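Our working data are protein records whose layout never changes between entries. An example says more than a description, so a record of this kind follows.
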Amino acid sequence: MSHEGRFGQYGGSYIPEILHNSQQQLIAAYRSAMADETFVAELEWQLQHFSGRPTPLTFCPNLSKTLGGAQIYLKREDLNHSGAHKMTNVIGQGLLTKRMGKKRIIAETGAGQHGVASALIAARLGLECTVYMGAHDIERQYPNVFWMKQLGATVVSVESGSRTLRDALDEAMRDWAQNYQDTHYLIGTACGCEPYPEMVAGFQSVIGNEVKKQAAEQFGALPDKIYACVGGGSNACGIFLPFLDTDTELVGVEAGGIGDAPGEHAKRFHVADSKPGIAQGFASLFLQDDQGQLMETQSISAGLDYVSVSPILADLEAQGKVRMTSARDDEVLQAFRTLASNEGIIPALESSHAVAGALREAAALDPSQKIVINISGRGDKDIFNIAKAVKDTQFNEFLAGYLERETQA
């Protein structure tokens, strides 16, 4: 990272003047906290005793044998308390909120995992919590909305624009600008103005650091390849960054959606409509039309349909340190089924993109090679989407019958 939160040509701070003092306070608090042994010790204690870290590195004997190629391991971020890697970042930012003396957090969420994690840490630390979520994402991920509300959070449905994550982020930024004196904006991914990309990636780097230690203990070497899904980029940054000084190949898997036409996917790399731009407080790659307007996206996973990507990953890909690929919805569903039926592990649809990218390449590798797939979250939240996608008529009949019985009760 260079001066003022820049990563090559990306990053930086493009925010209203009204947020300048609050941003500077956050930068100073973050730098001070990470140099404070007491804060770091409290962070590590909460990660262990509240979230359940370290998460295991799990070998997949059945899948490895079936494919006949590389030995496959899973980094089990789905076993965090909130069901996803998001818990790691919100614990860090929640403790920072208390350190700054603020009483309220706001968050944006797509798949709902960050929203649930934010609500959890707010309840634990005695903070008020407001979560902004696109109306379309609420329809796709209502179980997570239900739990946010049970945890005491206020969930605001965002009806503007595409009614997805990018619009939720816009609304959260407006809230922060109006209420910055007592409110911390707890961004869930490695995007936004300085210091958010560095800070979120830093908190999430515990993932990669754990993999390094676990790989040494379990097979005496570093992985040959690591695969992670890429939406905004927090789980990918978390597992990739500790391996930048190694020979491990780092592979990001974006949402290929249903096709290659504009609006049919959420790929920010290697597509003509993705161009450098500035929006939502930072510079990165954005899917844009000829007039520079942000484009619609498409993905079966609510957590990967963001119109931009972390400036850290945009810079690393430009340097050739990370390889980006993608997986379409049908391939993702097949990968979900393959992992679930062979290993008894139910990955989130976001994580299933990483599984799809890895399974596509694993069979061609030598059996002596080891690959790690970051299972960034578990798939309980996706039951409605998956049932719809696989056309499970019995599930639909159950829901219809349940609603009818409740209406008559």
